[in-house]
Design a protein that fits this description.
Elements lengths: L2 E4 L1 H15 L3 H17 L8 E2 L8 E6 L2 E8 L2 E9 L8
Helix pairs in contact: 1-2
């Protein structure tokens, strides 16, 4: 069975995003966080569902979109490593 592994970068991204949205609305921060978690949990059943990240052209580095955010992950054996949660306008770096 597949397993989700949060990298430090992805965890930091998630918490920073929550804090940023919370400044305006705790309700919407929680709501958006739940949407992100739901998308991530889908990977347990369908790990290859995301598209290949164009910047890396590697079949194992994929992304899901939620609103204007990219959930970038790597599939390796039976593990799914969450690499980044990044706004679509930002350049991906240091995965």
């Amino acid at each position: 069975m597949a397993r989700i592994v949060w990298t430090r970068n992805a965890s930091n991204d998630f918490h920073e995003l929550f804090d940023y949205i919370s400044k305006d609305s705790k309700f919407y921060a929680i709501r958006f966080s739940k949407k992100i978690i739901y998308k991530i949990e889908l990977l347990l059943k369908f790990p290859m569902t995301g598209r290949i990240v164009p910047e890396f052209d590697n079949a194992n580095i994929r992304e899901l979109l939620e609103g204007n955010y990219r959930i970038v992950y790597r599939v390796e054996n039976k593990n799914i490593y969450l690499l980044r949660i990044s706004h679509t306008s930002r350049q991906l770096k240091n995965l």
